[in-house]
Amino acid sequence: MREEEKNNLDQLFNFFREIDREKFIGRQTYLSDGMRKENDAEHAWHMAIMTLLLSEYSNQEIDVLHTISMLLIHDLVEIDAGDTYAYDEEGRKTQADREKRAADRIYGLLPKEQGKKLYDLWLEFEERKTPEAKFARVMDNLQPMMLNAATDGKAWVEHQVKLSQILKRNEHTSDGSEILWEYARENFIQPNLDAGRIREEKSE
């Protein structure tokens, strides 16, 4: 084996071992049985399959593999930065800086060309300008919302989440899919609002 090839493979397998740590990054969303919370790797897997089956509901035609790739790698930064809960206002103040430092280190473990590819995917997700990034954001919002609804709003109740917070987080969800946002409002949010599991306050 050529030395350059061996070095590339060493870097790749070092990266693969490093990202195993994503399985230990806990999120605030409960699994559908409500017994434990999911981890980042489970979240990514779930969104990838959802994208495969829901891509036809994107407002614009998307490259499905590109979108799935974005969803599989965008939370790797949380290996260093940790998960920032969607409604943790204090944590969100430092989130961008923490995740930028993490992206520099983690994607920098790869051979240069592949590292740049993943870093660019991460940036694309963060900037949410392309049709793929907009749809990826839909998945990132709807997957935990679906699980919250499946567990009778367990995490929403624990964190005393308000309707205004949910609507603020999802203010751009319809940019990626108007149909899926309408479905989520009717089937995930409204029943839990009616049941008092989401605190009802008008959005600001």
Structure explained in plain terms:
This protein has helices at residues 3-19, 40-54, 64-73, 78-81, 89-107, 112-127, 131-150, 154-158, 163-169, 173-176, 178-194, and strands spanning 26-30, 37-39. It has eleven helices and two strands, in the order H-E-E-H-H-H-H-H-H-H-H-H-H. Helix 2 (40-54) packs antiparallel against helix 3, helix 3 (64-73) packs across helix 6 (112-127) and helix 7 runs parallel beside helix 11. Strands 1-2 form a two-stranded antiparallel ribbon. The protein is globular and about 65 Å long. It is 66% helix and 4% strand. By secondary structure, it is mainly alpha-helical.
Strand content: under 5%
Largest sheet: 2 strands, antiparallel
- The shape is globular
Total strands: 2
Low-confidence stretches: none
Report the helical percentage: 55-70%
- Rg is 18 Å
Q: Give me the strand/helix succession.
A: HEEHHHHHHHHHH
Overall average residue pLDDT? 95
Label the structural class: mainly alpha
Please provide a brief summary of the model.
The chain has helices spanning 3-19, 40-54, 64-73, 78-81, 89-107, 112-127, 131-150, 154-158, 163-169, 173-176, 178-194; strands at residues 26-30, 37-39.
